[in-house]
From TrEMBL, chain A:
GO cellular component, one term: ribose phosphate diphosphokinase complex
Stored InterPro entries: PRib_PP_synth_CS, Pribosyltran_N, PRTase-like, PRTase_dom, Rib-P_diPkinase
Protein's UniProt name: ribose-phosphate diphosphokinase
EC number: 2.7.6.1
Catalytic activity from the UniProt record: D-ribose 5-phosphate + ATP = 5-phospho-alpha-D-ribose 1-diphosphate + AMP + H(+)
Record has Cell wall biogenesis/degradation as a keyword: no
Similarity comment text for this entry: Belongs to the ribose-phosphate pyrophosphokinase family.
GO biological process, one term: purine nucleotide biosynthetic process
Keyword Cytoplasm included in the entry's annotation: no
UniProt lineage: Eukaryota, Fungi, Dikarya, Ascomycota, Pezizomycotina
UniProt superkingdom: Eukaryota
UniProtKB/TrEMBL annotation, chain B:
E.C. code: 2.7.6.1
GO cellular component assignments: cytoplasm; ribose phosphate diphosphokinase complex
The organism of origin for this protein: Dichotomopilus funicola
GO biological process: 5-phosphoribose 1-diphosphate biosynthetic process; purine nucleotide biosynthetic process; ribonucleoside monophosphate biosynthetic process
Origin: domain of life: Eukaryota
UniProt-recorded name of the protein: ribose-phosphate diphosphokinase
GO MF, any single term: magnesium ion binding
Reaction catalysis annotation: D-ribose 5-phosphate + ATP = 5-phospho-alpha-D-ribose 1-diphosphate + AMP + H(+)
Amino acid sequence: MSAEMANEIKLISGRSHPDLSDKVAKRLGIEVARTISLNYSNQETSFTVGESVRDEDVFIVQSTATGDVNEGLMELLIMISACRTASARRITAVIPNFPYARQDKKDKSRAPISARLVANMLQTAGANHIVTVDLHASQIQGFFSVPVDNLYAEPSFLRYIRENFNAEDCVIVSPDAGGAKRATSIADHLNTAFALIHKERPRPNVVGRMVLVGNVEDKVAILVDDMADTCGTLVKAAAVLKENGAKSVLALVTHGILSGNAIETLNGSVLSALVVTNTVPLGDKVERCPKLRVIDISPTIAEAIRRTHNGESVSYLFTHAPV
Amino acid sequence: MVRNIVVLGGNSHPAIVESVCNILALPACNRILTKFSSGESRCEIQDSVRGKDVYIIQTGFGGNGSKLNDHFMDLCIMISACKTGSARRVTAVLPLFPYSRQPDLPYKKSGAPLFKGGSENGSKKDYTFESVPATPAPNVPRSAGLINGTDITSRLAKTTLGTTPLPNGTSNGTMSPVRPTNGDGSYFAGNGLGINNNTSTQSIIGSYTTHDYENVSHVGAFQAKPGYKQWVAQAGTLVANLLTCAGADHVITMDLHDPQVQGFFDVPVDNLYGRPLLKRYIQTHIPEYKDAVIISPDAGGAKRATAIADGMGIEFALIHKITDRQNASMMLVGNVSDRVCILIDDLLDTGNTITRAAKLLKKEGATKIYALLTHGVFSGDAISRIKASAIDKLVVTNSVPQNEHKALLGAKLDVLDISPIFAEAIRRVHHGESISVLFNYD
């Protein structure tokens, strides 16, 4: 590390979320590296590198756009592989929303554990380090044999709640049993009450019956979850909370995947607001859904990149959100 | 009836799966293979694969509303699912191997405008880790150098060569690369380079390009750093590694563009040949074949074409591409006047090479032109290009779905069925018999 210019951060952006990469680059005070991804007319992805990454510390920011997960993933793998062949010193894949995170177990016979496959693929392509935000199951970190930094949106959510609400008036609600831990952690930090909704799920993307455990009467009920996909769960949960006397209901969700008819579902729901982070490119959804609010997660990601590069501890970011 | 064998088909080419299963006299494995609304692939294998010899057929072709990368990921997920489902052996059968042909370097015959903005000034140059503040300061201009008021559009317009639109007016609609569509729609968001999309509606007719990145107007504002020669990532090795990483124990494919791709794998690869089929077609469907000339449209395919010419004892000619600084031109090595020409190549993508070759052959006095290719991808505006070309008969195999192409090209296109070859290869691999007989049967 004697040479002064050697081993800088090279921030490479995929096509999926250039807005996030730009924000991260701006925070870091650097430029996004000159690369371009295109699709050939035969649909194969091409990745052109326009500057040297030799011996540099490469960070590849690639989210996965809703509906185009495989496209984004393939592009990421090609980018990683290209940087490895170009002699990058270290390649960190910054994947704010980890693809296939929900396919993390063999829940029925011959079900693919696609999350593990993705983990293996990233390592095969040549990733030396993974940075992600709010993994659906933190056990996914165990699928990797390289370091995984799982950042949390929680500090950003805490700040949002403190800035916008009186914590005493709030109840933190987990829309399912699986998210109870995430929700209790927020409730503990705010020193507020906690409630849980129990649901039955007959098939994926279909929501069954719901039961509220806890009291939300005359309170602002804040639903907390890691991802909002079709929003069926959230909207039903919100209705249950309203029926149980909640003053208003809003939802704080890390990954706003918002697929299918999510926007229409949200617009017609009793939710007063859905607050998401910008881990997933939202496109025109913000315009189409007046209830959607976006928290910028790029300061946390940028700081994690800076700390990773400088060899500083990242754990401070688990409890604090950079301003 | 072959026992203990499971044939699992992807979504890319249901017809060949069905046909292979019919030949092997067994039903295709039941599976659910769709997408969740989030865009993630959903795969459930409904028949047991425990202890079975599994063959997964998925070709490297996207079209008819499906995407190549989706198919490839589906394949990896299916392989992985079979592996975790205790399959004894998983063989990936890829009639057309994806990412097998990646051009080497971006070839810019016009010499794309080198962007000589003062991009090496400002924050970037002085940036070291020592100088970065502990808390990064916002509002630092991200790309001070790029905002220098240069209108790159006018530069691009000047350097674009022939700007004649295509005769049938299809221009680039289908041919243009997929530009980023999220965010504000611009890859270089907010760098102030007002890129005018009008430039991308021109297609360079005077150049021999088969891929879009070679067209400067498609690449838009992208410029390599001064002094750095940009390069394109080669995904061939990666794809090979990903298949092995997913758990493939064996790979069967056909007419790899580069046979060296076999060396990328740590597992056995059987590269079948479409050559015998093409040969048989020549012998049975071209009456005057004894006096015909086999043509290779480029130097790279010479070996492939000579193999056929030698095997049948007919003449051979080659088209040589000359690229000097300003122009690319084609030169015929050999004589074709008053002869029937048979163009041989492995892959038809945008059809540029083959149609150009046909034009040259016609000019040189060829009476009739056949074009025989193993893989007919027909991407971009290949169909309309072929329609307008001097090719009298085009012959491809069904390594990718050809129904749509056949409907569009009609009698001009003949499709050869490769499913018997794959079925036989699967049967032989399963029984541990030699498949080398498949390489040179006539």
